[in-house]
Design goal:
Length: 318
């Protein structure tokens, strides 16, 4: 039976190289395994310590794409029980997958009953976050109940998300995610998706009006006309070369987060374009297209991007 946890490695995200890996880790294998074991025990998910294996550095969850976390990590496996990642420099758990539950689900052993209340789900998710250790700079969580189908290998889940932020400025597509089994509150997945280092500065000396002028000029240069401004907000992004000739929406190699005015426009074609204007220098730091399939491509880009959001987050599918 197919694995119930499919990694959604969508097109448009980075094939950029990982941040420079440390020559040698700070933790030992035994220490990394112990940190992972302690985390699991705190969640009520006992693991067999003697069977644990640890490798360094951990590879990206989606091969060919950037890692979930910008710092080097350990990959720890307890066969048949759990798989985790631990950030070497901070001892922070940044990924957890409940393999034991996954196997039970694949064998038709889905818990029955009614989903727990949203308040209980938030409490259970917070316990996972606390156990991971040292997670800071996040906004208030949101929770969503995802009802599945009726077969024994489908499962209801609570999805709890904290968006990453710095000085109250949100990151683009960076977040903390906890997935719980809805009827029991059992943690299924945990991801700390922090692919970029924090920005060197969060100051915004460029005004929104100045940023909009720059963004409008960029669209004109690219031959994109008849647009409507949807929003212009401060955001931390991983810069790219999208608006340069021959450029790409893939983040620049080892990109550090930069505070920008994210100016978002809807074109009459139905396509949406983001122009990222550096909030300190006023330069264009890249952008992102949301292109409707079959529409005309504008002169700068030769690639087609689908969907309302591109991310390499792990997703549970049925």
């Amino acid at each position: 039976m197919k694995n119930r946890y499919v990694f959604a490695c969508l097109a448009g995200l980075s094939s950029m190289p990982l941040a420079a890996q440390a020559q040698s880790p700070t933790l030992t294998q035994a220490q990394a395994i112990q940190i992972a074991s302690t985390f699991c025990q705190a969640l009520g998910a006992p693991v067999t310590l003697a069977n644990g294996t640890a490798t360094f550095p951990a590879a990206p969850q989606c091969p060919g794409l950037q890692a979930d976390h910008w710092q080097p990590r350990w990959s720890i496996t307890f066969p048949g029980q759990a798989s985790l990642e631990v950030v070497d420099a901070t001892n922070q758990v940044n990924h957890y997958e409940n393999v034991q539950y996954e196997n039970q689900l694949n064998n038709g052993l889905e818990p029955s009953g009614s989903p727990i209340a949203s308040g209980a789900a938030l409490t259970d998710a917070q316990a996972v976050l606390t156990g991971a250790g040292g997670v800071t700079d996040i906004a208030s969580p949101s929770s969503t109940l995802n009802a599945s189908g009726t077969t024994k290998t489908d499962a209801d889940t609570w999805l709890v998300i904290w968006n990453r932020q710095v000085n109250s400025i949100p990151y683009k597509d960076q977040q903390v995610t906890v997935t719980l089994q809805a009827e029991t509150g059992i943690p299924i997945l945990f991801d700390l998706e922090y692919p970029s280092a924090p920005p060197a500065s969060t100051s915004a000396t460029v005004t929104q009006s100045q940023a909009l002028t720059t963004a409008g000029n960029q669209l004109t240069t690219a031959g994109i006309t008849q647009t409507t401004l949807q929003s212009a907000t401060l955001q931390v992004v991983q810069p790219n070369t999208y608006w340069q000739n021959g450029g790409s929406s893939v983040p620049s190699a080892n990109a550090i987060g930069v505070v920008v005015w994210n100016c978002r426009y809807l074109a009459t074609t139905g396509n949406t374009y983001e122009v990222w204007v550096d909030a300190s220098s006023g330069a264009v730091d890249g952008g992102f297209p949301y292109i409707i399939a079959g529409s005309a491509k504008h002169p700068i880009k030769a690639e087609l991007v689908h969907g309302a959001k591109t991310s390499h987050k792990k997703k549970k599918v049925h």
